[in-house]
Amino acid sequence: MTALAAFAAVSALASVSSVEQQRQAGKKARKAGEVQQRIADASAQRETRKQIRAARSERARVENVAAQTGTAGSSSAITGAGNIQTEAASGIGFISSQTGLAREATSLNISASKYRSRAATVGSIGTVTGQYAGAKGFEELGSIFK
């Protein structure tokens, strides 16, 4: 085996290994993104339950105060309880929108990871091709002087 052939074989082997490593890195990055999304979803669920619990507690407090003061059916008591529900719904809506944005960001990060992996693969193939072409060029140049 000539030195040129050995060089080409080692270069090709290294590039194949590099492509495989990049592919594995892309898979791990996608899995990490999916795990991060599950964490964000769990956090959003917990925060939603917390908002609902706080709203129920506050509404019960307002209704209790209204009952103790004899204003249970008044418009101010009803409006106060309604405002609590509205505020809770607004908070839950915000959590939902944040969760949606987090999902979109995760999806974009996964796509970016795929494109980076593909770009690295194409770059490695280009490097091997260039090295082989360069080596062949040197070989042909050497034959001119023989």
Architecture overview:
The chain has helices spanning 3-69, 75-144. The protein is rod-shaped. Helix content is 94%, strand content 0%. Helix 1 (3-69) packs antiparallel against helix 2. It has one domain. The protein is built from two helices and no strands. It is mostly helical and 146 residues long.
- Tell me the overall shape: rod-shaped
Determine the number of helices (DSSP H or I, runs of at least 4 residues): 2
The count of strands amounts to 0
Low-confidence stretches: none
Keywords:
single chain; 146 residues; mainly alpha; 94% helix; rod-shaped
Describe how the helices and strands are arranged.
Layout: H1 3-69, H2 75-144
Helix pairs in contact: 1-2
Provide a brief overview of the structure:
The protein is an all-alpha fold and 146 residues long. It has helices spanning 3-69, 75-144.
